[in-house]
Amino acid sequence: MSTRTLVTNLAALEDGPVSVSGWVETVRDQKKVQFVILRDESGAVQLVNPAVRELAEDAGPEASARLAITEQISALAHGSFITVTGDLKHDERVKLGGLEVKIGTLEVVTEALPETPIAADSSLDKRLDWRFLDLRNPKQALIFKVQTTLLHAWRTYWVERGFIEIQTPKLMASASESRAELFEIEYFEGKAYLAQSPQFFKQMAQVAGFGKVFEVGPAFRADPSFTSRHATEFTSVDAEMSWIDSHEDVMAMHEELLVAGFTAVKERHGAEIEELFGVEVTVPATPFPRIPLARAKEIVAERGYVVPREDEDMDPEGERQIAAYVREEFGHEFVFLTDYASNIRPFYHMRHEGDPSLTNSYDLLFNGVEISTGAQREHRVDVLVAQAKEKGLEPEELEFYLDFFRYGAPAHGGFGMGLARVLMLMLHEASIREVTYLFRGPTRLLP
Ligand code: AMO
């Protein structure tokens, strides 16, 4: 183990010898003194070197060493990775953390090329080309700390309630959502498809008697769009549970889960999010507002925006309008839109008992963007077959899935939620590209 001290831990040390390692953020090379700002994963610290520019004839080894360090610092490229030993000194006058390290030895572990390919004002695309450099910005690192906290809180919520974590295969023999957004790949002598959702397999866990399951894993959609909310590969957060009376039970769990996640993020990172993103994280009140989709469209129309007829779902502008309404009426950032029409929902959604034109399903919107779809599932195989046929699907292709329901299936339901969408909206970022570790889109497979 190295003896280096994390920058964040320097404040607690007394004045004396220390060793720190990190990236060169800035160099101020003045005639008599040089300052280097060094950053590691925990923070930044000022290093100082009393510069020696030339040696007097009677100069001792101390002055020679100082001259060597001075020359090293003058040649330091931004981004180089260095290790420094030196003397820590607490000094209130130092703006950065009230301390500095007087350099004793400086080792350039790896030198960076002199020109940094991105700057603060580079385009998002350029920054993504150089994602590893882009992520050195503490604001970017915070996104992934928040994500870690969110996922930890969600896992804890589920584990404490008896949910079982599963990993379902991402190579499949059929589509699970729509054939239109399916990646087909060569698979030995035949074809395979990349999983669009763990849908079928999380339902399988219900007929296997697991009761309640969750999964956090990749999902793939061959979606050619370039919107701020679509990726071709994204992290899907899924849950599925048995013994429900309706989708209302799923929604009750879903909102509790979000409260648990937002509470943890606010407690742990609230101040830093406010400082770096200028955003206050609000823990949502429960129950979240619920509005049937048909009523939501009326509300939007009353506000002067008519959702295009051919688009029976809410379009993005409709979502923004309903979010504005919910904010004004309920002071809430979330809304469940419920009771979607059967013709715009997948075959596996359960339909209303008395009105098969509607489903026991919902979309969850956060600040005007869909973050999740959930539903009660149809567990009666004859009804399921009829619904699949009605959607133009060949039951033969779905035989393996339909079999699940031929050997005793409980009522069940669940949801899938896009992790990056939650983060984007929580941090008021403009695109999921900003909050995805390595974004994948129609024209991006690198790095
Ligand atoms: P759906 O297709 O609505 O439902 O997807 C669920 C959630 O996943 C996210 N999402 C995406 N995120 C980024 N890029 C994409 N291309 C993308 N597509 C979807 C969204 C969306 O709300 N099986 C159902 C879920 C269920 O009923 O359990 C499903 O996949 O946040």
Automatic annotation (TrEMBL):
InterPro entries in UniProt: Aa-tRNA-synt_II, aa-tRNA-synth_II, aa-tRNA-synth_II/BPL/LPL, Asp-tRNA_synthase_2, Asp/Asn-tRNA-synth_IIb, NA-bd_OB-fold, NA-bd_OB_tRNA
Family the UniProt entry places it in: Belongs to the class-II aminoacyl-tRNA synthetase family. Type 2 subfamily.
Subcellular location: Cytoplasm
Record-linked Pfam families: tRNA-synt_2, tRNA_anti-codon
Record CDD domains: Asp_Lys_Asn_RS_N (cd04100), AsxRS_core (cd00776)
One GO cellular component, as annotated: aminoacyl-tRNA synthetase multienzyme complex
Gene field: aspS
Gene Ontology molecular function: aspartate-tRNA ligase activity; ATP binding; RNA binding
Positions of L-aspartate binding: 177, 221, 373, 377
Annotated region described as Aspartate, given as residue ranges: 199-202
Subunit comment: Homodimer.
Positions annotated to bind ATP: 370, 418-421
Gene Ontology annotations of biological process type: aspartyl-tRNA aminoacylation
Keywords carried by this UniProt record: Aminoacyl-tRNA synthetase, ATP-binding, Cytoplasm, Ligase, Nucleotide-binding, Protein biosynthesis
Its biological purpose: Catalyzes the attachment of L-aspartate to tRNA(Asp) in a two-step reaction: L-aspartate is first activated by ATP to form Asp-AMP and then transferred to the acceptor end of tRNA(Asp).
EC number(s) per entry: 6.1.1.12
Protein name from the UniProt record: Aspartate--tRNA ligase
Catalytic reaction equation(s): tRNA(Asp) + L-aspartate + ATP = L-aspartyl-tRNA(Asp) + AMP + diphosphate
Enzyme class, UniProt record, top EC level: ligase
Primary location group: cytoplasm
Domain Aminoacyl-transfer RNA synthetases class-II family profile: 144-447
